[in-house]
Each structure stands twice: as C-alpha cells, then as structure tokens.
Amino acid sequence: MNFKSLKNRIILGILFLLPVIFLLFLYPSTNNYNALDIVKTNVSEISNFKSDVDGGIKLEGNLTVLGFLGKNPNERALPALNLKEVIYDKFKGFKRFQVVILVPNGSESQVNLLEKELYQFDELKYWRFAYGHEEEILNVFKSLNSNAEINKDLATDHVFIIDKERNQRGRLDDRDNKEKEKNSPVYPLYSYDCIEVAILKNKMASEDMRVLFTEYRQKRKGNFNTDSRREQDLKGKNEEI
User: Fold this and answer.
1) pLDDT tens digits, residue range 26-84?
2) What pTM, to 2 d.p., does this model score?
3) Strand, helix or coil at 128?
4) Going by DSSP bridges, is the β-strand pair 97-104/63-69 parallel, antiparallel, or unpaired?
5) Which domains occur in the chain, in start order?
6) H helices then E strands: how many in the chain?
C-alpha cells in the first residue's frame, strides 16, 4: 500500500468518524437538559372569560403565553407587536400553543383597533383575546408569581408562560455564568417584558419556550426525567414558589 492510498483512507476514516463523534457529544445534552422551572402552581383557569372561540378558551391542556393589555389595549400596540413578531410568529402552529390576552369587558372597540394593526402582518389563528370582569382579571393576575405590577387599567407589559397543567414556568435562578462564578445572590425570572426585545429573543424564545416544547415532546416519547430541573443548579438554596 503506497503512501497516497494510506493517506486517502485516513482522510475517509476521519470524515466518517467526525459525525459519529459529534452525535456522541450531542446525545447527553439532548437527554439531560434542565427543564423549565415551575415557579407557581394552580394558575387560575379562564374558562369563564368570553371570547369568539367556539367552546371558549382554557389554560388547561394548552401551552399558553398569557398577557394583560387592560382597558385600552390599542395604546399598548408596541408590546403586542413585539410579542407577535418574536414569540407568536416563531411558535404559531405548534400543537396546543396559544397566546391569550386578558382584557376587561367593554374594551371590544379598542381590541378591534389593535387587531387591525396585528392583522396587517398575519392571521391571528392562535392569538386569542378573552374578556372578563375586572375582579376576574385581577384574580388571575394574583394567582401568578410576579415581580411586575398590573396598573389601574389592568395592564402590564409582562407576559407569563403557563404549561398544560396550569403551572407557571420561568427561572428560579436567572443569573448568568459570570454572576454564578462570582456567587452573586440568586434572583428569579417569573415573567418576560415585551418592551425588552432582547429578553423576548434571547431568554423567552431561544431558551425557555424551546425547552418547554422539548419537555413535552420527550414526555410524549416517554423519555422525560422529571428529576432534571434547573433548581439543581441552586446548590441547596431553597426557593419559595
């Protein structure tokens, strides 16, 4: 066997082994990822809210991005457009995914104006507005874990991730790697500010929503390990949820 033939075989062997090695590195990361934390359980159901959806709207059984646009939703077009472009457009069509915006009764005309703004870009098949009494909206908000506040018009720029079991999802530890290396105090991420596009893109869309969809996909396949959660990174710190 001459040198040129040996060299060609070595190159072919390397080309064959590289994908195999890559998959071996990838395998543990796809099966041992950290699930998205449950930061609050038993979020209030919204089945009593009115909507134009046949059969009404429910949180149970759906992966929901929940928002509150208040009495004048058209005045909050910016956070609504950011939410649509960064989150809704990326995940629309996924099984059981929905964006639900709670608004008080009597805000229908304002909702119609906002819908015209949103409809300029796409049909909102998985985006729903639900109407309720002010007390009902406040009860839903109070059932959430939040550092954000809802204003007197029942609005906030923050949205919340709710899973199929009506658990609120987020991060018990939102520190970045540098903060962890410095042993900075632990702080959570309960909601996502729709004014901050970077948070929607880099935290909610690229990481947290993707992880939650992966969790449910693995549950369907029977591969999900319920013991694998981000709170393991807290190193024994107890968080009240």
Assistant:
1) 544 444 457 899 999 999 999 999 998 888 899 999 999 999 999 999 999 999 999 99
2) 0.80
3) strand
4) parallel
5) 37-232 (3.40.30.10)
6) 8, 7
